[in-house]
Structure formats: structure tokens, C-alpha cells
Amino acid sequence: SLKMASDSPESLMTLCTDYCLRNLEGTLCYLLDNETLRLHPDIFLPSEICDKLVNEYVELVKTDSIFEPHESFFTLFSDPRSTRLARIHLREQIVQDQDLEAIRKQDLVELYLTNCEKLTAKSLQTLVSFSHTLISLSLFGCCNIFYEEENPGGCEDDCLVNPTRQVLVKDFTFEGFSRLRFLNLGRLIEGVNVETLLRPLASLAALDLSGIQLNDVVFLTQWKDSLVSLVLYNMDLSEEHIQVIAQLRKLRHLDISRDHLSSYYKFKLTRRVLNLFVENLVNLTSLDISGHTMLENCTIPSMEEKMGQTSIEPAKSSIAPFRGLKRPLQFLGLFETSLCRLMHIPAYKVSGDKNEEQVLNAIEAYTEHRPEITSRAINLLFDIARIERCSQLLRALQLVITALKCHKDDKNIQVTGSAALFYLTNSEYRMEQSVKLRRQVIQVVLNGMESYQEVTVQRNCCLTLCNFSIPEELEFQYRRVNELLLNILNQSRQDESIQRIAVHLCNALVCQVDNDHKEAVGKMGFVMTMLKLIQKKLADKTCDQVMEFSWSALWNITDETPDNCEMFLNYSGMKLFLECLKEFPEKQELHRNMLGLLGNVAEVKELRPQLMTSQFISVFSNLLESKADGIEVSYNACGVLSHIMFDGPEAWGICEPHREEVVKRMWAAIQSWDINSRRNINYRSFEPILRLLPQGISPVSQHWATWALYNLVSVYPDKYCPLLIKEGGIPLLKDMIKMASARQETKEMAR
Question: Domain Protein zer-1 homolog-like C-terminal, which positions (predicted)?
């Protein structure tokens, strides 16, 4: 089913929601006084649509850097007569007091506020407006919601120094929340009296007190007939806690797990405690004891273990106390405990660190509220993906993507998640991934690069991008990915390995793409960035991959793109060309890349006069004799000169070397090349070559062009014959054969 889920297109509802949110003004809203969004008066939307709009909006603000949040977004839902809200999930900095205030007239049934640190006690008052309808409420991680600002007043100066003091609200309770059944107070601030807060609630079904330390929990027994789910993650327990829990006989889900790294715990689990749970909590279907140390051995001696297939039957359980279960548990949390490695565990789903299944269960169970645990689970997944093969690839990828989206600002998750993605997207897993899934990977990778200037994250993200077909798979984020890479390359302090990967990616991104893409990237400062890298390498006298890739990238980005060629000349590209030639006379790849680029510059008529200096012409003439990289350097030098010759004798504005002398050397060079040479070059169009055929001003240019076409169509007929025909080369060749000025050998070749 996962395979299908990841492949199926988005629902129409999702597509419409996304479109409306990105174009609020053009669809649901108009702008009042050029700043405030207002709903069109004839729009009426039910809660099914409004809930989705709000929840997707929060998601977009959080995970899509290009999406702009709107100051007045929540005011669109202020009037229940035109918009209805029922179930909304808000998170982090996105939501402020005035946003909740704006929707206070709505009859909310479910309100999840997760890590909304900007909410203050003003929002507690707003919650009261929902008290008559609210069934589910989460205030997880809303660490300031019980604080109000108290203005000391009085002295003016004092007000400037200390304008507001944060004061803890002591008198708020859930009085009047008559329908509230599900409540999450995870990571509640210290000093709030939980017992007083909760006492008015008549029948709680689920309560989450994660990360809160309560020494007395007797008050929980007031809901012993209704409580089906209790979470006490990271609470240091005692015998008193255990006795209270054992009285909550209706419990179906109990979580007493902990993060064993977070602090010192006195409490140790024993066989007796587990027995007590099994005997008293007869409805239990889910139990989490992750992170606990077992004080004594709860395991069945391996002699008595029934060997053979692993079994989830309680009677065969390797954990002794669980032999008393009536049926296997749906879920058993054993992450970072020794028990998860046992043979027979009586549960359908186990979180642990023994194998891929257990690790994925852990990531799934803990991602939303426990990033500290999740990052360690993802680290285990990273090892599995790196050393052995992942058998549940799609599930693994989706879980890592969700974790990275959910915890965009958590450094540990970004580091481990981006590393895991690199191994999960490499070529051996390629076939199993849909376009949609691979796009999601690219999105979270780019998010990571945006939010984190941290070296490890940047390197992991760049490496992961290398697993994709470039430019095709990155086309849908083309501008953004180029901006991010140029940003990395423009940083003053640079990590060598990241620099190398980023230049490689930049080069691949401008290879074989449309000219408008190249122009856009040129305007972003691509040419300048590459020249700066070359300058730096020259200063260090190193010709490494970064140097070669940078010239190669310039060769690609100037291809049939005059604006970029002009930029190359304006930013003293020619000076760098001469210096590199002088500094690295033996580097053949480098010479090929540099001359390929100059070939592109020479194709632009307006720029050719800038190449017309004694120094440049001498350099190009001398390179005609070069044997570097087969014929490539000589061929490209001859190409540059062919375009210059095409401008005629009157454009030859130099005394030395003489035009005739250079022409003679060009003929000699072309005659020395092997017509069957295999080539290190890739033409997308023959237009610049075909231009040199119908003219009598420079027979040698005509000959170079004919030689180039003859070589390419005879060595690579499948690729280049169709191109020659498509671009109208045949009639041009036929006409040239009739020309009196063309040399006999050129005509032979053309024929």
C-alpha cells in the first residue's frame, strides 16, 4: 500500500487547497487598503475545507521557504457564518496570540498547539471561548502560554529598562470545558499546579504529561473509570506512581518511557512492576517502557525458550511477565532497552534497535514529540542503509522526510536525516522510487541547505543531490537550487569537499538546459562566482577538480548565450585564461575546457573585436599545434580563429601575426587531424558551424566547418545526421559545392 500511496497523484482537494493558498488574492480574497486580506463576500466554506486550508497553510509556512506568510491570514476565519473551523493543528512560531483571538468565535472540536512558543496567557483566555465544544486539546511545548506580561508602571526610566515582567498565571483551570476528553500538556512549564488545573474535568479519556515531574499523581484516580491513555514520558517514577497506575484499570495505552540520556533516574523497572501492569491493566494493547533499565532479569532462560520461528504468542514470550497477557500487544516500546533483542516478543509492533523493522517503528512513534529519541533512531537507520540493504525503503524514506520536515530547526535530526537520505536515494534503490517521492526528497534537502549553514548538513545535502539525474530531476526547483549552490560557493570560508561537490553540481545544472535557464543563472552571478573560484585556485597555484569544473561550467553556461559570454569578458575572464595557460601548461583537460568556452565567445559577432589583439591571436595560433586531449584543443583553437577570419580582412586590426600566416597554420592543423577521431564534445545545435558555410570571405573557415560536420556525422551518425537535416544543413552543403571560391578538398568532403 505504501508503494501505491507514494505513486498516486495528489487529490483534487489537496491541489486546490495548495493553489488557493499560494494565490489567495486571485481566488478567495481581495486586498483591503493594499494590506489586509479579506474574504470575498459571496464565499461560504464548510469546515472540511477550512480545516484543510488552515492546516496546509501552517505546513507551507513551515516547510516551503518560498511561501510568504500573511499577517492577516487567520482573520479570514473570524466569522463562522462564512467559514467554519472544527479541527486545526497549529505549530511553532507561525501562530501568535492575535491569530487564536481572530478565530475565537469558531466552535472548535480539536485544537493542537505544538511548540507554539509565542503564545502567552492571552491565549489561555481565548481557549475559554472554545470551552463548550472542545473535545481534544494539545498544548505540547507551549512553554509561555501560562505567562502573562505584567507592566510594573510607575517610573518612566524603570519602564525602559524592564518594560515587562513575565508572571506565571496561577488561577487558570479547565473549568467549563465540559466536553474535553483528550488533553496533552507535554513539556508544561514548572510551577503550574497540574492537579488544580485538571480537577474540573469530569471524564478524561487521554492525558499526556510528557516531560513533567509530578511526585504525587494520586489525583489521576479521579478518572480511573474513563482514562484509556496515559503518557508519562520522562517522569521519574516511584512506587507511589506505580500503585496509582495499577488502579487505572481502563488503560489501553500506557507510556512510561524515558530518554535515558536526559538526566539521572532513580527508578528502575522490575519483574514485579511489569507483573502488576499485566495483572491489573487487563485492557492494555499498547505499552512503552523504552529507555528503562531493568533492575533484575525478566527474561526466560534461553534453555527454556521455545526455539524455532519467532512467535508473538504470550505463552512463548521471552519476557517472563508478559506470559500473563491474554493476547499479544498491538505495540510495545522497547527502544534502548536490552529486551528488544530477545527472540519472542508478544507484540505486533515493537520499537527497538535490533533490526530495521524495530528502528522504523521507533522513528514512526517518536518523530512528532520526541526529536531527541528520533535522531538516535534515524542514526541507526543510517547504519542499516549504509551497511546492509533496507528492505522497507519507501517507508524508511517517508519517515525520514517527515522527520526532516517536522524538525526543520533541530540540528541533530538535520544531520542524521540528511545523511540517511544520501544512502536511501542512491542508485541501487532508484527503481523503487516514484517521481513524487524523489521530489519530496529534493524539497527537504533544499530546506536543510537553506536553514543550516552547518558544514555536515551542507555536505550531506549536496551529496544527496548527486544521487539525482541532473538537470532533469532538479528542473522543478531550478532557480532555488542554483541560488543555494552559488550561496555556498560565495562563502568566504569554505570546506574543500563541499566546494568540490557544489561546483560539480553547478556544472551539471547548466549542462544541456535551455538558454533561458542559462540566462537566468547568469543573472544570479554564476559567471562571477566561477571566475572568483578560478582566481582563488590560481593564487594557490593549484589546478584541481574545482578549477577544471569551474572552467567546464563556464563553457556550458556560455553555450549560445551571448549575455553570459559578455559577462565572462567584462569580469576579466581573458586575463584569467592567459594566466591559467601560463601556470598550467601541461593540463590538457583544463586547456580543452578553456578553449571550448572561448569558442562560445567567438561565436558572438559583437564580442569578437575584443579577441582581436596580437597577444590573443598568437596564443590561439600556437594552440593549433597542441596535441592536448587528442584533437580537442587544436580543434577549438581553430574554431575560435575560424569565426574571427569570417569577419574578413578588414576586421584584422593587428600587424602581427599576419592574417595569411595564421590561415596557413589553420590549414596545416586541420590536415593533421584524423577524420575518424572520437570526440569529447557535445553539440546541441549546428547553427554556429553552419553559419560558416555560405560565404567566400574565408575558405579556411568553410573548411573547418565542413570538417567538423563530416567528423561528427560519420563517427556519431545516429545522433548528428538527424540534427544536420533538421537544421537545414543539406541545402547549405549543396550550394557550397557549386561555389567557385570553395577549395576542392572542402567540396570533396561536403559531397
Answer: 404-750
CA distance linking residue 201 with residue 174, whole number of Å: 7
Question: Is pLDDT larger for residue 183 or for residue 581?
Answer: 183
3-state secondary structure of 331: strand
Give the separation between CA 54 and CA 95, rounded to whole angstroms: 11
CA distance 332 to 318: 14
And the C-alpha cell for 236? 521519574
Main-chain phi, psi angles of 255, to 5 degrees: -125, 110
Judged against a pLDDT cut of 60, whether residue 160 lies above it is answered with no
Question: Considering the entire predicted model, what is its pTM?
Answer: 0.86
Burial of 104 (0-12, 13-18, 19+ CB in 10 A): middle
What are the cell numbers at 559? Answer: 553555450
Number of continuous H segments (helices) and E segments (strands) in the chain = 31, 14
CA-to-CA separations, 662 to 58, 204, 382, 424, 609, in angstroms, rounded: 67, 93, 61, 56, 17
Cis status, amide bond into 41, omega within 30 of 0: no
Q: Give residue-wise pLDDT tens across range 255-289.
A: 999 998 887 788 889 999 999 999 999 999 999 99
Cell 563517427 sits at which residue?
A: 715
What letter would DSSP give residue 136? E
Q: What is the CA 586 to chain-centroid distance, rounded?
A: 41
Is 646 in contact with 701 (CB distance < 8 Å)?
Answer: yes
Indicate the pairing of strand 165-168 with strand 147-150.
Answer: antiparallel
Residue 332 near residue 257, CB atoms below 8 Å: no
Q: Which residues contact 653 (CB under 8 A, 6 or more apart)?
A: 609, 612
User: 677-697: b or e for each residue (b if 16 or more CB lie within 10 Å)?
Assistant: eeeeeebeebebbbbbbebee
Please state, as a whole number, how many other Cβ atoms lie within 10 Å of the Cβ of residue 704. Answer: 26
Element of type H or E holding 638: helix 632-645
Among 58, 57, 52, 48, residue whose Cα is nearest residue 23: 57
C-alpha distance across the termini of the chain, in Å = 61
Helix axes 496-509, 455-465, angle to 10 degrees: 30
